[in-house]
Input
Amino acid sequence: MRLSGYQPHYFPRLHYVQRVLDSDLFELSDYLQFVRKHEFPLPQGGTKRGKSFQAHASIKLANGIFYLVIPTVDRLQSITTTPIVYQPDWTQKHLASIRSGYGRASQFRVLFPEVETLLSEQYASLGELTIKTVLWSIMRVITDEPMAQFSLSAVNQLLSKTKHPFRLQKIVLGSETKVAAPTGNPSQWIIDLCRKLNATEYITGGTAGAAYMDFELFKKFNIRVMVQDWNCQSYAQQYPKVGFLPNLSALDLIFNEPLHVRQRILG
Output
């Protein structure tokens, strides 16, 4: 059983979706602390601060990358309790930017109404919204079957009965595992999740592997750690004069390519 985990992101980037699909079980770490920026290790040593993408989505416009940003009340609290600021109404600006970037994309007419529906609701917290956008992004690489809602129960039900070319079987919320959120060693927290969920493998990103993963500790508990090894292949994008931009929000691939291409790119 292979497990992966990630905080919920706003319309997550493609490497995020690919890691989910390459796992049997995906844990959405909804109860972790919300941060706008993380520290990332650099290959040559040292660190830099960059977007966490918990409240950012990267799309492609005529001038290149553009970031959709969710305004929040920023204080020390979990993703599931971080309030979204709805005044002024930023959702219409996000929809207008998405429409500007992808209005001529091949899958836009069919799939944009789902994004409109997702953003038309006012959510009590950042977690409520971003979990929905994660689930939508995953399912629109799994299937084109119409879905009335993108709730966790609906997604898991569809996963259980839909044939698809990926490993993914089920998605769980970290807050529902009864494994306490980390207060010290993050590797021990991940090990506790693996043991709770009967996982013998854990797939992580290269950044996390370099920053804090204690590989020897995982060996002690007979859990194999795999570092994600995936590079974004080129696919059809809008604004070719800008050049191909890899690893954008899943919105980019989903609007630009039909299902079989989405599955090939993320396979």
